[in-house]
Design a protein that fits this description.
Blueprint: H1 6-16, H2 21-27, E1 29-35, E2 38-46, E3 49-54, E4 59-63, E5 69-74, H3 75-83
Antiparallel strand pairs: 1-2, 2-3, 3-4, 4-5
Protein backbone atom coordinates (compact mmCIF):
# COMPACT_ATOMS: atom_id res chain seq x y z
CA UNK A 1 0.00 0.00 0.00
CA UNK A 2 1.28 3.46 -0.89
CA UNK A 3 2.15 5.83 1.92
CA UNK A 4 0.50 9.22 1.59
CA UNK A 5 2.62 12.13 2.72
CA UNK A 6 3.76 15.43 1.24
CA UNK A 7 6.62 13.76 -0.66
CA UNK A 8 4.38 11.15 -2.27
CA UNK A 9 1.81 13.76 -3.31
CA UNK A 10 4.50 16.11 -4.63
CA UNK A 11 6.10 13.31 -6.64
CA UNK A 12 2.76 12.06 -7.97
CA UNK A 13 1.81 15.52 -9.19
CA UNK A 14 5.23 15.91 -10.80
CA UNK A 15 4.87 12.51 -12.47
CA UNK A 16 1.43 13.38 -13.83
CA UNK A 17 2.84 16.59 -15.29
CA UNK A 18 5.89 14.68 -16.57
CA UNK A 19 8.35 16.90 -14.68
CA UNK A 20 11.81 15.93 -13.50
CA UNK A 21 12.77 15.96 -9.82
CA UNK A 22 14.95 19.00 -10.44
CA UNK A 23 12.03 20.87 -12.05
CA UNK A 24 9.88 20.03 -9.03
CA UNK A 25 12.51 21.24 -6.59
CA UNK A 26 13.06 24.51 -8.45
CA UNK A 27 9.52 25.48 -9.47
CA UNK A 28 6.98 23.98 -7.07
CA UNK A 29 5.53 26.30 -4.44
CA UNK A 30 4.07 24.86 -1.26
CA UNK A 31 1.77 26.59 1.17
CA UNK A 32 0.48 25.43 4.54
CA UNK A 33 -3.16 26.31 5.07
CA UNK A 34 -4.36 27.20 8.58
CA UNK A 35 -7.97 27.61 9.65
CA UNK A 36 -8.81 29.03 13.09
CA UNK A 37 -5.19 28.59 14.12
CA UNK A 38 -5.10 24.89 13.19
CA UNK A 39 -3.15 23.34 10.30
CA UNK A 40 -5.73 21.91 7.89
CA UNK A 41 -4.20 21.55 4.43
CA UNK A 42 -1.17 21.83 2.20
CA UNK A 43 -1.22 23.33 -1.27
CA UNK A 44 1.24 22.42 -4.03
CA UNK A 45 1.36 24.73 -7.07
CA UNK A 46 3.35 24.40 -10.29
CA UNK A 47 2.80 25.57 -13.87
CA UNK A 48 -0.71 26.79 -13.05
CA UNK A 49 -1.80 23.46 -11.55
CA UNK A 50 -2.79 23.39 -7.89
CA UNK A 51 -3.10 20.29 -5.72
CA UNK A 52 -4.70 20.88 -2.32
CA UNK A 53 -4.38 18.13 0.31
CA UNK A 54 -6.98 18.36 3.06
CA UNK A 55 -5.06 16.51 5.74
CA UNK A 56 -7.78 15.60 8.24
CA UNK A 57 -10.06 14.21 5.52
CA UNK A 58 -7.07 12.82 3.57
CA UNK A 59 -8.65 14.18 0.37
CA UNK A 60 -7.03 15.99 -2.55
CA UNK A 61 -8.37 18.36 -5.20
CA UNK A 62 -6.44 19.08 -8.38
CA UNK A 63 -7.24 22.17 -10.45
CA UNK A 64 -5.81 23.07 -13.83
CA UNK A 65 -4.33 26.34 -15.08
CA UNK A 66 -7.82 27.50 -16.05
CA UNK A 67 -9.04 26.99 -12.46
CA UNK A 68 -11.32 24.09 -13.37
CA UNK A 69 -11.44 21.05 -11.11
CA UNK A 70 -9.63 18.11 -12.72
CA UNK A 71 -9.83 15.61 -9.88
CA UNK A 72 -11.26 15.25 -6.38
CA UNK A 73 -10.38 12.01 -4.65
CA UNK A 74 -8.79 10.45 -1.62
CA UNK A 75 -5.09 11.13 -1.26
CA UNK A 76 -4.40 7.38 -1.38
CA UNK A 77 -6.29 7.01 -4.68
CA UNK A 78 -4.41 9.99 -6.14
CA UNK A 79 -1.04 8.44 -5.29
CA UNK A 80 -2.22 5.03 -6.52
CA UNK A 81 -3.29 6.52 -9.89
CA UNK A 82 0.33 7.40 -10.66
CA UNK A 83 1.62 3.93 -9.80
CA UNK A 84 -1.12 2.47 -12.03
CA UNK A 85 -0.02 4.62 -14.94
CA UNK A 86 -3.21 6.70 -15.16
CA UNK A 87 -2.86 10.45 -15.55
CA UNK A 88 -5.26 13.10 -14.25
CA UNK A 89 -3.57 16.10 -15.85
Amino acid sequence: MAVVNADSLRNTLGGQLQLSQSDLAERMRETLLVRNGVYCARRFAIDGYTLTWFVEENQVKLTGPDGKLLSATSALAFVHQQSSGRRAA
